[in-house]
Amino acid sequence: MSNPSAAPSPRTRVRRVAELANYDAAVLHAIIDAAYLCHIAFHDERGTHCIPTACWRIGAHLYIHGSNGSRLLKRLSENDACVSITHLDGLVLARSAFNHTMNYRSAMIYGRFEAVADKHAAMEALMEHLAPGRQAEVRGGSDKEYAATTVLRIALDEAAAKVRSGPPLDDAEDMAQPVWAGVLPLAQSRGRAVPDPAGGGAAMPAFVRQWGGADSA
Amino acid sequence: MSNPSAAPSPRTRVRRVAELANYDAAVLHAIIDAAYLCHIAFHDERGTHCIPTACWRIGAHLYIHGSNGSRLLKRLSENDACVSITHLDGLVLARSAFNHTMNYRSAMIYGRFEAVADKHAAMEALMEHLAPGRQAEVRGGSDKEYAATTVLRIALDEAAAKVRSGPPLDDAEDMAQPVWAGVLPLAQSRGRAVPDPAGGGAAMPAFVRQWGGADSA
């Protein structure tokens, strides 16, 4: 991953609109760290499947978890998989129908998942990703809960990012078309925190008060 | 798809947390219509792949498109695929680490894509999905552009939705844990439209002015 212009493998070489490809680890990590979930493709005797699941990064690996009984997790330790993360940043409205496109940041990772031995450290990193500082406040996982949980990780060695940003690119002969052109931005936004109606008197911690933008204490 | 409680096939029967499954067409359609992109899993001689692409719905089919040269589109007419769409609606913070989860609406479709003969109608439906009314304003697709474009569709016959919403569900013995519990909402939001700096004098149409919430004319 040290050369941002070279794909780490033939199957991570971006083919469509290849000038948008990026093989730099920092770009890849930023795309992963901005995500709460990924889509994982795998193949078994029933066909090819595409399953969304929570993900997080520790160093040069992407982590997932689930119940020991999960078909996804069983299959992933037996076969190669492909993981995709996509952030949609906007609709790009060009002067011609054909040149309409979207702005996005996407990551794709190929490889084989492996079981993680230190499940405690991995799950605490997930909690830190979701809600910084919360691990110290919740009732931590019991031995029984940890025993029922599988944690897997995949190396980020065979991965690529693809990013489009900025305004539309129209053909020269379309520039005088009398139509508005530009970008309609899209982003993941946070709404005001909703306390569990089942109650419990604990005060909102700072990161919950700040979640929705304005301080909602 | 007429019975909301019955899966249309063995591979669309939701297995994990099966009480969140929904096989009703209206629920499925709403999840698809709220999306601008999907992830598609397919398998070829290089392995299993997971590729994001724009999607839209016409009736009981999901549509995608791309260049005739696209590997994705070539492979999809040769093999079964799985399409996933996932909207992340919030992080669900429980009183125990183990019961943390996410709120989401997800759809999964299995089947074989087929080529669409009436590409004009299909692409105009995509434009209507992205920017209502815009088709009449842009420079429409030329014969050459349409000839270079492949449009595929997949029937929504073999599909399932899975939806989680609402507050955390904690174990009874954790309800007194002194920690805030509730939902941190997430949503896709729209930012203020960004005109192409390359100019062109056309006024912002109403849907562009309204895109960012406040009227930004």
Automatic annotation (TrEMBL), chains A, B:
It comes from Janthinobacterium fluminis. This is Pyridoxamine 5'-phosphate oxidase family protein. The lineage of its organism: Bacteria, Pseudomonadati, Pseudomonadota, Betaproteobacteria, Burkholderiales. It comes from the Bacteria. InterPro entries: Pyridox_Oxase-rel, Split_barrel_FMN-bd. It holds the Pfam family Pyridox_ox_2. Signal peptide: none annotated.
